[in-house]
Amino acid sequence: MTVQTGIHSISAARRAKDRFVQVLVYLSFALAVIPLLSVLWLVVGNGLKRFDLTFLTHSMRNIGATDPGGGAYHAIVGTLEQVLLASLIAVPIGLLTAVYLVEYGNGGRLSRIISFFVDVMTGVPSVVSGLFILAFWILILGMTYSGFAGALALSILMMPVVVRSAEEMLRLVPHELREASYALGVPKWRTIVKVVLPTAFTGIVTGVMLAVARVAGETAPLLLTVFITDSINTDPFDGPQMGLPLYVFDQAQRPTNTAIDRAWTGALTLILIVMLLNLVARLIAWWRSPAKRGS
Amino acid sequence: MAKQIEVSELDAYYGSHKAIEGISMTIEPRSVTAFIGPSGCGKSTFLRTLNRMHEVIPGARVEGKVRLEDQDLYGQDVDPVSVRRTIGMVFQRPNPFPTMSIFDNVAAGLRLNGRFSRSELEGVVEDSLKGANLWNEVKDRLGKPGAGLSGGQQQRLCIARAIAVQPQVLLMDEPCSALDPISTLAIEDLISKLKQEYTIVIVTHNMQQAARVSDKTAFFNLAAQGQPGKLVEMDETSKIFTNPAEKATEDYITGRFG
């Protein structure tokens, strides 16, 4: 075999390999998209049937499984409250943990321990966090089932996601920017608040939204902590609430077509809420980014 | 406003590694002092010890004395933040804050340190940008992001940001090494203008630049790889470049090594 030297055209073998890999990449992309599209197709197709004003403004109080009508207002309110409360707990703790790990930990013993437990928390199945809150909050401390108990369980699931994503984003902030700020005589904490966090803001928002999207669809922990109700309960601190995942779970179990239609619409509503929240986060990120002002 | 810096028997460490050893020198006010020497000889490390930026790196520490007029910068109860406010720094690569506009970048040092009215800030920003020879280029787009400027403009923006807090000393760590000749010229002009008011210390790899802008030049060298860097000699720039006292300085300047 002779070694080819000089400039020559691409060999047929390399062309074929290139084509082959290209086809593989397209195929795997299609394979990944098919489930997504089919889920969307099914949920939208089946959910639109009951996606009306009654559904969005009425609860299931005094509505039997076979009755038409009824809605998920109580579940929408519950989900929004629970996710909001969970975020209020998990985002500050998660963000501060990430700031500690990146800015103050310096790879010391404490930061390695925290890192390890964040990893462990990432792997905790959602039902376990529900069981923990059930055992600790409801059985030992004697609290009632409530939206807040659910929020506690959800915040356990959110926290590691927030920590990890915020940590990644903070590490991406160039060290030169911190030095530039120190060199101006700015104390470390102000540098973090005024330079590091704003620089990582867009990424942190995206990470928080991923965490929200993840917990918004959790059913198992809510089942153990929020319980289920057919009535509107706007107070997340007192008594059973509803949540959209619970609503879907509850309605889908009932053996009538009217209930199953409601379950589909509940799923559609949940997807729309998560999408809406994502959109809002994008808008905030866009509004805060310097690129908006044109460069 | 400009003050003298006096360094005596200064050692700097990264963990257990001694990066520079036994450096003593006096840096005169209202003049430009250039540090030259081969890579890794500790010029930048030494520069960073002058405003306590060295200790920002985990494990880094300093032994010895640095005095600004009659104040010991490494005294027991000296706040490093206040040292950095008094002794400003410009870095090798332009590093404007990416989330801030041109105006906010220049105002950053003031804004992050206290409360100022909009009109006060506007005055300082205009003065600083004029001081950095950048005002005419950016006065119509102060609200645009600082990261949208060219490299040379960004570096002058960083100089404007550094002088906006009115430091007494300005340290520059190879401020032109990432810039083209025209931007370099602009910065060098700026340096000769700034030395009327500030004590300026500049680290450079460009010997012509040291010869052009500085009044005094210090030559750093290290005996061997892994050994700490030392100050070989320091004298009037004209003397260093024409008739240095040490053989090593002559060899370096004439390009025989480094």
TrEMBL record, chain A:
Compartment list: Cell membrane
InterPro entries: MetI-like (IPR000515), MetI-like_sf (IPR035906), Phosphate_PstA (IPR005672), Phosphate_transprt_permease (IPR051408)
Topological type in the membrane: Multi-pass membrane protein
Pfam families: BPD_transp_1
Stretches that traverse the bilayer: 23-44, 83-102, 114-139, 145-163, 195-216, 263-285
CDD domains associated with the record: TM_PBP2
Annotated ABC transmembrane type-1 domain residues: 76-281
Keywords: Cell membrane, Membrane, Phosphate transport, Transmembrane, Transmembrane helix, Transport
PROSITE patterns linked: ABC_TM1
Primary location class: membrane
Family membership noted in the UniProt record: Belongs to the binding-protein-dependent transport system permease family. CysTW subfamily.
Function (record text): Part of the binding-protein-dependent transport system for phosphate; probably responsible for the translocation of the substrate across the membrane.
Protein name: Phosphate transport system permease protein PstA
The organism of origin for this protein: Microbispora corallina
TrEMBL record, chain B:
Transmembrane segments: none
Keyword Cytoplasm on entry: no
The ABC transporter domain, residue ranges: 5-247
UniProt cross-references to Gene3D superfamilies, sorted A to Z: P-loop containing nucleotide triphosphate hydrolases (3.40.50.300)
Key word ATP-binding present: yes
Alphabetized UniProt keyword annotations: ATP-binding, Nucleotide-binding, Translocase, Transport
Pfam families: ABC_tran
Molecular-function GO terms, alphabetical: ATP binding
Record PROSITE patterns: ABC_TRANSPORTER_1 (PS00211), ABC_TRANSPORTER_2 (PS50893)
Family matches, as PANTHER family: ABC TRANSPORTER I FAMILY MEMBER 17
Protein name per Swiss-Prot or TrEMBL: Phosphate import ATP-binding protein PstB
Species, as recorded: Microbispora corallina
